[in-house]
Design a protein that fits this description.
Keywords: Fatty acid metabolism, Isomerase, Lipid metabolism, Lyase, Multifunctional enzyme, NAD, Oxidoreductase, Peroxisome. With 734 residues, the chain is α/β, with parallel strands linked by helices. The chain is 47% helix and 11% strand. The strands form 4 sheets. It has an 8-stranded mixed β-sheet with strand order 12-11-10-13-14-15-16-17, with helices on both faces. Strands 1-2-3-4-6-9 form a 6-stranded mixed β-sheet, with helices on both faces. Bound molecules: ligand LEDWP2DD. Ligand LEDWP2DD binds next to helix 2, helix 3, strand 5 and helix 12.
């Protein structure tokens, strides 16, 4: 951790060194401060360039040290602002040479410089808010002065990252280069030696403000509350920017510091920051995958994928084709029906056109001048050229097995065979091939070209190379791959099961869909269970329940209406489906919609009457349920299933489950994920509640507390980072 100095003529080049991302720890900042002081007093130096080692300017303050900062939070931001202020006040021009990333405190440092030169591929952003804090080293005071109030408000409150070409348009940087950035910055420096610096110091620059500022701030706070479900740091950003507008620079800096400090004085804000920082590291942790047999990310190298094939061009297949093409992978898109193929081609082309437009708006056209080529074909034999095949036909075991049998004989012997399924048995599919070690599950989430999560389902025979290749592919696609074990519904959907059942039982007992959804949405979930079910389509679950004989023609005669094999069962969603209410796709479900396919869920008096009549017919007494009861009744069984998943070694650690929920199920990041949330609530409380629920409802087996939960409570509820060591994994210390 150091900063060093070299000179090139009259230009001193200060290099930040703190691998891998040049994070600004207290030590690194002290070192920059020291070298910066030295060059100020060196008469041979006429200009200063600041850059980062290994093609990265800086990823900002060192997040790893936050845990220990505690009440001293002030000190790091204080220090960092000292450097920024020293650079800004320098009588010699200071130029930031930005390669790779300038994020958070890294960009704040660049804002203290008089000029900024960036490589065309560099990414810039004040991302602190996404870690539950906000730019506390002058960023909230300097950025609005540089690029104007509205763009600064957007960047700071959302943590938005922009690429250099967009940064240039915003006025955030002064020059973009496609060549060596440090050389370009030195050249730039030589040209500005001796030029007046006063107008380059952001601390003296007035902010251009529109007349209706108060309305802008208030509207922004309302919008952020909705968008980030009440996360506090976003609101604090607005207050800090308000200070930039209302106060002189020096007072604004003090206000910024006071607001940053307020995070430590509020338990809720502190917990949210901890949760977000945990979520950040959890996403890095899951890339270091491990399996119960001891295989892990170090035991195999991934194979590069040049040509990938997708079978089936339904909604999922189309999305998968798009993300492969966007990653510049050559794609073979196969359908068995000419009409479907044509529809698929049109849909993919349309999505790619939209993506091109978005990329141009984000200044990415320079970098991605082409997508990977796509061949649309009815010819299965063309699959012989693929390094990896993703089968994405509908969920039908017989059909999938038939396809895998064909793949086994058509594809190259070393080709990887993936099945996109949300819950079918990978081993059964692999068993029909002559290469089960190359077969793996890839559970994409819809829309596949947008959702970041990929559940990578290892089968019994999946080799470490196969896992490694698919995890690497997920990174190439810009996704987060999480390795999970093979069981019905895998991790995410399996945990959803008890949650959705509990929500439906609430309707039997007296609640209404909108009431339950409101509680869970206020908690922070992107969608409550009923709005989500309407979006997914109620018919999906109905078909699967009919298939397994829980309802429909296969249901054994004499079955009780509200019981299956001695367990509580609610026929409510089946009845809705029998009435043609499939959700958004039919314009009616748990809610009503303005049109078929409409998105605006409106409470439906029909549903209310229906529930009323149902309760009467089954002589169910309506029970009043508090908001807290709704929350615990729905979330604790989901968490309990998470513990079961860990105990059965289906997920390798709590971070895996939390990453799945944060990225695939709309769990609020400022709540960390269900397992992190359980650790914050306290495991004894979760266990006690589950015990009471189960005692009162012995016919709901998912309420039975998990053995792992009981074990952890018995051990005094160790912190979450120690749970992994309680699992059977051979490599749990990774
Ligand atoms: C409880 C409350 C606590 C509050 C504490 C408050 C403290 C107040 C201090 C105030 C300081 C002033 C204000 C400034 C604040 C900040 O700057 S906060 C940091 C803002 N920066 C970011 O948000 C960037 C985060 N990093 C990234 O987005 C990515 O890592 C990347 C830089 C874009 C690189 O991506 P990629 O190439 O995909 O590599 P990764 O695998 O993600 O990362 C490589 C390793 O680097 C580690 N790492 C990344 N960033 C940081 C960082 N800022 N600090 C420490 N470590 C970082 C990352 O974890 C990886 O390491 P491993 O996990 O070991 O693999």
């Amino acid at each position: 951790m150091s900063a060093s100095k070299e000179t090139e003529g009259a230009v001193a080049v200060i290099t930040i060194r703190n691998p891998p991302v040049n994070a600004l720890s207290q030590q690194a900042v002290e070192s920059i401060l020291k070298v910066l002081k030295e060059v100020q007093f060196d008469p041979a130096v006429k200009a200063i360039v600041i850059c980062g080692e290994n093609g990265k300017f800086s990823a900002g303050a060192d997040i790893r040290t936050f845990e220990n900062i505690g009440q001293k939070s002030d000190s790091l931001s204080h220090f960092l602002e000292d450097v920024n202020s020293m650079a800004e006040k320098s009588e010699k021009p200071v130029i930031a040479a930005i390669e790779g990333v300038a994020l958070g405190g890294g960009l704040e440092l660049a804002l203290g410089c008089h000029y900024r030169v960036a490589h065309v591929k560099a990414r810039l952003g004040l991302t602190e808010v996404l870690l539950g804090i906000f730019p506390g080293a002058g960023g909230t005071q300097r950025l609005p002065r540089l690029i104007g109030l509205l763009p600064a408000l957007e960047m700071i409150t959302t943590g938005k990252i922009v690429f250099a070409p967009v940064a240039l348009k915003l006025g955030l940087i002064d020059s973009v280069t496609e060549d060596n950035t440090i050389k370009a910055a030195i050249h730039f420096a030589q040209n500005v030696i001796g030029k007046p610096l006063e107008s380059r110091r952001l601390c003296t620059k007035p902010i251009q403000c529109p007349p209706n500022m108060e309305t802008i701030f208030n509207d922004s706070k309302i919008k952020l509350k909705k968008l980030f479900h009440g996360a506090i740091s976003h609101q604090l950003c607005v207050e800090a920017i308000r200070a930039a507008v209302q106060l002189p620079f020096a007072e604004g800096i003090l206000k910024e510091r006071e607001l940053l400090f307020s995070i430590f004085n509020s338990e809720q804000a502190r917990d949210q920051a901890k949760a977000r920082q945990y979520a950040f590291f959890a996403e890095r942790r899951v890339t270091k995958w491990t399996t119960p047999s001891g295989a892990n990310w170090k035991s195999a190298s991934p194979h590069p994928i040049g040509v990938a094939a997708v079978i089936g061009l339904g909604t999922m297949g189309r999305g998968i084709v798009v993300c492969l093409a966007k990653a510049q992978i050559q794609v073979i898109a196969v359908e068995q029906d000419g009409k479907q193929l044509e529809m698929g081609r049109k849909a993919v082309t349309k999505i790619l056109e939209r993506e091109t437009l978005t990329m141009q708006q984000r200044g990415l056209a320079l970098m991605s001048d082409s997508f990977g080529s796509i061949t649309f074909t009815l010819d299965f034999n063309s699959l012989k050229n693929a390094d990896l095949v993703i089968e994405a036909v509908y969920e039908n075991m017989a059909l999938k097995k038939e396809i895998f049998k064909q793949l086994s004989s058509i594809c190259m012997p070393e080709a990887f065979l993936c099945t996109n399924t949300s819950g079918l048995n990978i081993d059964e599919i692999a068993s029909v091939t002559g290469r089960p070690h190359l077969v793996i599950g890839t559970h994409f989430f819809s829309p596949a070209h947008i959702m970041k999560l990929l559940e990578v389902v290892r089968g019994y025979h999946s080799s470490p190379t196969t896992i490694s290749t698919v995890i690497n592919l997920s990174k190439v696609l810009g996704k987060i791959g999480v390795v999970v074990g093979n069981c019905p519904s895998f991790v995410g959907n399996r945990m959803m099961g008890p949650y959705l059942h509990q929500a439906i039982f609430l309707l039997e007992d007296g609640c209404y869909p909108e009431e339950v959804d409101k509680v869970l949405e206020e908690f922070g979930l992107a969608m409550g269970p009923f709005r989500m079910s309407d979006l997914v389509g109620l018919d999906v679950g109905w078909r699967s329940r009919m298939e397994s004989g829980l309802t429909g023609p296969k249901l054994l005669p004499g079955a009780l209406v509200r019981q299956r094999e001695g367990k509580r069962y609610s026929p409510l969603p089946d009845i809705l489906c029998e009435k043609g209410r499939f959700g958004q796709k039919t314009g009616r479900g748990w809610y009503q919609y303005e049109t078929v396919g409409g998105r605006n869920a409106v409470p439906d008096p029909w549903v209310q009457n229906f529930l009323h009549d149902y309760r009467k017919a089954h002589t169910i007494k309506q029970k009043p349920t508090s908001q807290n009861e709704i929350l615990e009744w729905c979330l604790y069984p989901l968490i309990n299933e998470g513990f079961n998943v860990l105990e059965e070694e289906i997920a390798s650690g709590p971070e895996d489950i939390d990453v799945i929920y944060n990225n695939g199920y709309g769990w609020p990041r400022h709540m960390g994920g269900p397992m992190f949330y359980a650790s914050m609530v306290g495991l004894p409380k979760v266990l006690t509640k589950l015990e009471v629920f189960y005692e009162n409802n012995p016919d709901i087996p998912s309420l039975k507390p998990s053995g792992l939960l009981k074990k952890l409570v018995k051990q005094g509820s160790p912190p979450l980072k120690e749970w992994r060591s309680q699992l059977g994994y051979q490599n749990s210390k990774l």
